[in-house]
Design goal:
Blueprint (H helix, E strand, L loop, with lengths): L16 H24 L2 H14 L5 E5 L5 H9 L4 E6 L2 H13 L6 E5 L12 E7 L8 H11 E12 L8 H20 L4 H11 L4 H9 L3 E8 L4 E7 L5
Parallel strand pairs: 1-2, 1-4, 2-3, 4-5
Antiparallel strand pairs: 5-7, 6-7
Helix pairs in contact: 1-4, 1-6, 2-3, 6-7
Amino acid sequence: MEIKAEKITPYGSNDPKSRQVEAMFDNIAPAYDFMNRAMTFGVDRSWRRKVVRAIAADSPAALLDVATGTGDMALQLARAIPGCRITGVDLSEGMLSVGRRKIQEAGLANRITLTKGDCLALPFPDDTFDAVTVAFGVRNFEHLDRGYAEMARVLRPGGKLYVIELSTPTSPLIRPFYRLYTRWIIPAAGRLVSKDVSAYSYLPASIAAMPQGDRMLSLMTGAGLEAPALRPLTFGVCTIYTAVKPARQ
């Protein structure tokens, strides 16, 4: 399967996509949380909450949040699941620095650990985590199949992968407003707030190029996961994808 999103990069240079993504997030880290809330009108928190509630129902002991960024998902998981230990991994030290400060202020540094690492080579043993999450991160993977394979590898048998990703609405009534907002308003606001001309133009381009719907589910099954499912949210501008690592026979 050709994956156009792998070719979409923040700066269009000859550097590998992962290196460009790391530089981009280092650049925008100070403004990232503000822009996230502003771009989604705060709805991104409710999208995460839906996943957190589903995970909490299984009372997991150990969770991994891939592309953890400034730690929003890790913090929501820790608050909702007492006693659970959460590990967050991300390419960007700039984002992690913001996340560590937030975690310290929340008094959760004893339960959340953030570490710098590559999603294509996760620094954890096989079968380590009860669940793996990645919120708004898979479109930044340089190789999606390898990223999914790595997340499947570190899941314990029977564990579940949860992916939250922005998506393109299919409704002909919503799509024109969505395109106007993502292609013009978000890049303009991003340039004013983050001072990175490219970062918020990369966002709509990477969303449009991402495999969506059944194509995303096929990436999960290609990584050896089972029972793939999807749930569109907010007129289809966001989708939750899930799959399960098979139990050993």
